[in-house]
Amino acid sequence: MIGVLSRHSPLALLAGVLLAQVLLLAYQIKRDHDVRLIRYWSAQSSMPFARGGTWFFSNLGGFWSGYVNLHNAHKENAQLRQEVGQLRLRNSELENKAAEEQRLETLLNFRNAHPEVQMIAAQVISASADPASDTMFINRGDQDRIRRNMAVITPDGVVGKIVEVLGNTSQVMLMTDKDMGVGALFADTRTHGVVKGSGESQPKLDYIVNDEKVSAGQVLLTSGEDKIFPKGLLIGTIASAKEGNPFQVIRVSPAARLDRLEDVLVLATQQELAPRKSGEPFTVSPAPPAPPPSPAPAASQTNSQPAARLSAAPAAAAPQSATQAAPQTTPTQAPPQ
Amino acid sequence: MASMLNASLRSDQNVEVHKFYSGAVILVAFLALIVQAFFHKFGHWADFVDLPLLVVIYFSVSRRNPVTGLLLGAAIGMFQDGLSHDNPIGLYGIAKTLVGYVASTAGARIDTEHPVSRFVLTFLFFHFHQMIYVFTQRFLLNEAIPFFTLHLLLESVVNAAVGVILFALLDRLRRRS
User: Chain A closest CA to B59's CA: distance in Å?
Assistant: First the structure.
């Protein structure tokens, strides 16, 4: 055997003998923590392979799971996008319903607060196609006993009046229309005037003499002298006032949000609304009888006397009606455009 | 083992391969180990001489067979480890295995019969053995042992001198062809 080894592989035998002795030594020697050297070597020699294998398989698994997850995430993303779209639509519907419900609740509360006045709730269905006229259409008409010159309001304040009645729709002229006028009075000073539309978002308050002290923020109510709006409805507040010739140039900021009307109330009668809370602008009184047409106010007439102002207002409130023959005609009514 | 060591093998046809009486190699190796262990009881002066190493060098150089040399070195070294009270088995074994292999390889190429060459060879193999021994201790046992000291140099000289004498005595165990 030695002869065979000597001829062929003495170096291999040397390596084998040395390796055997090294392993024997490693088995006997103990390093830190009383661990045999051969165990330490075994762990150290196998650790890179174990780590490499672990790294490879974890990365492979991670890559595969990442690919699968990405694929699933793509599908899930598309599904979630669709769901988000549906939920947004649903949310929008619910928000609209909630807003509508709130509006209707406000209308209902307002209506319940004034049972003495017959009101017809209506929805705004469209605006006028003519940009020069501030009108809109509501979904109530002749079938709902809507008549011309009925007042249209919201719980916030005056909106306008009915100018055309069809079968199941009606046309409403807003108080900002240049053919519109509303008899008005100041809530504090009781000075009368006429709110006239100007085609702009802020109508004018006419027939207030320069001596009258007017300041921004003063509250303006309906005077009831136009035979359309009951007395005491909130019109708006004074936005600005400056001296003019012969009357002050006063701009009114409407209380009702005329640019975003959706639900309105049509007053079937001109009966005044009874206040339910202190400070509410509506007054309790039976509907006043239609006053006879008053003479046009003199330019020099002062409005320091309430009686003078009260008598001057209806005439002033109907600049167009001054030329009309019939005195009972609504002062603010203007010929349909 | 005896038959293996006494086998008449030649690594080179031009080099003389010495044969020994049957059992001589084993007996000498055993005696060297016993004497080494016996001397060790009498003090550190005995550490100056590494008789098992000298025996490995002599028989490896004489037999001129690497396989025989490395097996003899491995056997004597492991026995020496076993007789020492604190060495793990294999420490001397590795060193003497390599010495046996290299000595038998060298013996096939250079003259190993002259006393001077024997002195030089023993001197060099002693340091080679020591280098392997220290390297193994440093690498495996994690012990910081110096590779070279004056004490080691003195030991190598003493061993070389003892080797010259011992080799001459061991020559008497050769069988005459």
Answer: 16
Using CB atoms, which residue from B4, B101, B140 is nearest to A14? B101
- Chain A: residue whose CA lies nearest to B1: A2
Is the Cβ of B71 closer than 8 Å to some Cβ of chain A?
yes
Tokens linked to A111: 């209506």
The pLDDT of residue A174 is: 92
Question: Given pLDDT bands bounded at 50, 70 and 90, which one contains residue A281?
Answer: low
Which residues on B lie below 8 Å from A40 (Cβ)? none
pTM exceeding 0.90: no
- Measure the CA–CA gap between A174 and A266, rounded to whole angstroms: 13
- The CATH code of the domain that includes A206 is 2.40.10.340
- Residue B18's pLDDT is what? 77
Work out whether strand A234-242 and strand A249-254 pair parallel, antiparallel, or are unpaired.
antiparallel
pLDDT, mean of residues A186-209:
91
In a domain, A182, yes or no: yes
On the question of pLDDT at A312 being above 80, the answer is no
| Strand partners for A158 | A153
Chain A closest CA to B96's CA: distance in Å? 10
Choose the closest CB to B140 out of A6, A18, A29: A29
Residue A205 has pLDDT above 90, yes or no: yes
- Spatial neighbors of B110 by CB under 8 A, at least 6 apart, are B117, B121
**Residues from chain B contacting residue A37 (CB–CB below 8 Å):** 140
| Whether B177 contacts chain A with CB within 8 A | no
Say if A92 falls within a structural domain.
no
C-alpha B69/C-alpha A10 separation (Å) is 10
Spatial CA neighbour of B33 closest among B14, B57, B15, B50: B50
Q: Which residue range forms the structural domain that includes residue A273?
A: 119-294+304-323
Query: d(Cα A233, Cα A225) in Å, to the nearest integer?
Result: 12
- Fold of the CATH domain B2-173: Arp2/3 complex 21 kDa subunit ARPC3 (1.10.1760)
Answer whether B4 sits within 8 Å of A37, measured CB to CB: no
Site from A25, A30, A31 to mutate, B interface, most B CB atoms within 10 angstroms = A25
